Amino acid sequence: IIMIPLTVRSNYSLMWGTASVKQVCRHAQRLGYKPLALTDTDNLYGLWPFLATCKREGLSPIVGAEVTQPGGRLVRFVC
């Protein structure tokens, strides 16, 4: 069984994430993850840097986003 964290935010998530995409990918690699999800909040701005860094670091990217609904509830979409 492979555990894949699906709530991973980068500094592209304003007020939520602090690490750059590069830092997130390198940390995941050090922890031994092969697939890695990036689910920034309310945007996909980090998508291209994430895909490029995953390719360079030998990771399998999982693309996603958390979308804020009216009332503040977060819904996560991954593909």
TrEMBL record:
Instruction: List the Gene Ontology MF annotations in alphabetical order.
Output: 3'-5' exonuclease activity
Give a single Pfam family match. Answer: PHP
Question: What positions does the domain Polymerase/histidinol phosphatase N-terminal occupy?
Answer: 4-71
Which SMART domains does the protein's record reference?
A: POLIIIAc
SUPFAM superfamilies found in the cross-reference section: PHP domain-like (SSF89550)
Q: Which InterPro entries match?
A: DnaE2/DnaE/PolC, PHP_dom, Pol/His_phosphatase_N, Pol/histidinol_Pase-like
Query: What does the entry give for GO biological process?
Result: DNA replication
Q: What is this protein called?
A: Polymerase/histidinol phosphatase N-terminal domain-containing protein
Q: Which organism is it from?
A: marine sediment metagenome
